[in-house]
Amino acid sequence: MTWMMDCQEALEQVSATLPIRPRSTLLVTMAALGNRGVVTEAAGFNADEDAQKLRGAMKGAGTDEAAIIEVLAHRTIAQRKLIQEAYKRSVGKDLADDLKSELTGNFEKVVLGLLMVAPKYDAYELRNAIKGAGTDEACLIDVLASRTNSEIKAFTAVYKKDYDNNLEDDICGDTSGMFQRVLVSLLTAGRDESSKVDEALAVQDAKDLYEAGEARWGTDEVKFLTVLCVRNRDHLLRVFQEYQKLSGRDIEDSIKREMSGTLEDVFLAIVRCLKSKPAFFAERLYKSMKGLGTTDSILIRIMVSRAEIDMLDIKAEFLKMYGKTLHSFIKGDTSGDYRKILLELCGGEK
What we know:
- It holds the Pfam family Annexin.
- By secondary structure, the protein is mostly helical.
- It has 22 helices and no strands.
């Protein structure tokens, strides 16, 4: 099956840099993205039946969007890939191509996103962020600051395969200065992912960050990069505690005082993801919908990419941080089939 081959190919390209594990374990890891998602495996799943439902939804005049939502919003990525195989087998056409010809707008973007395995979707989003005129820095920041080493290696390999370009080269061609250097550092997927905390080093790191920012005229951004992009999460949480004691400020407040623009944004994203990824994504969702207009690209990317990983935690953080449910925000800020499918990926009002 080609979807399994796609997964295997991406995994093979990064396996040399991963801890040695049986391939079956790696495939399970790729398929079962997380255990805090709203989208879980559908019971009594039958790929052929689902393929026929989708075919029926697109046959004849008009499109049955409700049937498309019913199937695709309630299947895991692994199940959706099996549906795509069954569709091609029974119809002789590509499911994504047929859906693309039937759907439009943001609803189409959500549906097509749901058909991609995680590394492919990340690569697709990054490609859209840097191709053409202008750059979607928010996308680059969201993806690179929040993914694990193995996830970064996987989407980098897929990017190379799908677009025949080196992702680092493309990002360097579209960004500049210290912001570019931070992105390149993240792209190396070189963060220590152990849980070891070196107390003496944590104190020294906090001191180095203080002396690189608050304690001097101007800012030594390279020191921030060296510490924030390389050390492991547990160690950095300890660094942040020491930094608070030393400077009397939260590290986020110092970053806001010392930096601006995209550099401030990327360092804040790194810190917030280290503290709590669900809280980071909850804030991104809130800001994408509050005030006039909606930043649909952010809303879609997070809802599609996190539905199977940690949407339950994101919803809980959203309610805690803003006193309103994510469900209510989406309901009040979107409309039509776009609203319906997002609400299904959000999963219930609570």
